[in-house]
Structure formats: structure tokens, C-alpha cells
Amino acid sequence: GVVVLRSVVTNRPLLELLEREIWKVADANLPVGDPRRQNAVSWNAAVRALVHDDLLASIASSAVPEIPDPGSLGYEEAPVWGFRGTPDGLAHEAAGYHFDDHHPCSNGHKGLQVTLWLAVTDGAYPLEFVRGSHKVRQDVMSSRCGHWLVHRRTEPPFSNAWFEKECAVGLVQNATDRSHLAWSTDMRAGDVFVFTGDLLHMGIQQPSPRLAISLRYRTPGSACTDPFWVPAGAVPTEFE
Predict the structure, then answer these.
(1) Distance between CA 42 and CA 203 in Å, rounded?
(2) Which of 44, 51, 69, 192 is the most exposed place for a label (fewest CB within 10 A)?
(3) Which domain of life does the protein's organism represent (predicted)?
(4) Residue 156 within any structural domain of the chain
(5) Tens digit of each residue's pLDDT (9 = 90 or more) over 117-144
């Protein structure tokens, strides 16, 4: 699931410094997946400082009761998300929906990937989460999207979440009450979303600039590679 922590970073000069330095990563216009964007620790001091921050690591570990201390949680990556603004307001695109965790066992909570999405600048409705996409839901299971619960790898060029994203967009956009399926909240600089890697979500483009960094951590033993694993209670659905 997801929770919001307000005012995790409150030092205004520090936030201004982080903003100035982390924009350097965003403005490099590196593609998603490029190691220099996903993990700028080696060349950006602000990203490096956040990755090594004990408070943030402690917050991540507190999201997983099975983890005894922050040292048991392994750092994975810290991609930067910076948008200079778009004139067309909120933008919802199917390609934007994704799971942070690409390992199929994440959805069973036997091992977890945890993301701390730190807002470096203010942002109205910056992320959109699909409610209940990390667990079994009757309305989802009765739709053709039931297979979004099966995080299975497929042969290239398909990703293991492609069909799930396509289904989620259709469900959310066609819902009579969008809030029943989608959720978000406005963020101020220093606020943090904490969520598990099996929660479907997307970043929302908006007219004003927005900058954030995703600090991702992984619990021991969570990199499961069994392609046929499904969460308890789920009914496997073959890809159409």
C-alpha cells in the first residue's frame, strides 16, 4: 500500500540546495533506465547524501515489520523525476503506469521492495496510485485485468507489467467514480510517499515544474524469479 508522511524534510535552505543540485540530474534528459539517471550517486552529491541518509533508510525499514533494523534493508536505486511543466495540464498515459518492483514475488509480501518518493518541490497530484492493485480485489478479479496480480515475466520486447498497465488505465478511465480506483494527494517540498513496489502507479505531468527522487530499497530474499508464482488467493489468468 501507500502512506504519506508530511514534512520529513523541513529545512528550507536544505530543500533549496537539493532542488538546485537534483535538477542537474533531471535536466540531463537521460532516458528512464539509464544507470546515470537511475542511480546518480556516483556523480551527484545531493543524490548521494539522500541515499546515505539514516532517517530515510529508517522510514523505509519501518514500513516492513519483518525487518529488524535499517541495516537489513538493501539500497537498490534512486531515479530522479523532473518535469519542467506542460501546457496541457494533467496528463494520463497508459505508458506511465508501472510497478517499481519487477520481481514476481513482490506481490506476496514474502519479500518487498519499498519506495520513498521524496517531493523536492511542491506538486499538485504528482502521482496517481491504483487502489488495491497490490492485493486481490473482487472487482479487479472479475474483469479482464485479473492477470495484473500475476507478475510474470514475458519474452522480450514485452515487460511483465505491460498488460497490467493497459488494464488499469481502462478501469480507471471508465470508472463512474474515479476516486474508487485511483488515489493521490497534493505534496509539498519535503513530503514523502512511502509505498511498496507491487502498487501500480504513474507520475502525472502538470503545468508547473515538479521535481522528486525515488529512493528504492529491497528486503532480503525478495528477488524471486519463479515465473509462475501467484499471490495467495489469486486465480492465475493467462495472457490474452
Answers:
(1) 25
(2) 69
(3) Eukaryota
(4) yes
(5) 999 999 888 998 887 767 655 555 555 5
Q: pLDDT tens across 203-233, in order?
A: 887 778 899 999 999 877 665 544 443 433 4
Q: Are 173 and 121 in contact (CB under 8 A)?
A: no
The CATH number covering residue 90 comes to 2.60.120.620
> DSSP assignment of 158-170, as one string?
--TTHHHHHHHHH
**Residue 239, in any domain of the structure:** no
Neighbours of 8 (CB within 10 A): 16
Specify whether the CB–CB gap between 144 and 152 falls below 8 A: no
Q: How far is CA 120 from the centre of its chain?
A: 16
Distance CA 112, CA 103 (A): 9
Q: Which residue, among 153, 139, 136, 157, has the nearest Cα to 239 in the 3D structure?
A: 153
Q: Is residue 190 part of a domain?
A: yes
CB 15 within 8 A of CB 188: no
Single pTM value for the model: 0.78
φ/ψ of residue 37, rounded to 5: -95, -40
Q: How many CB atoms lie within 10 A of CB 232?
A: 9
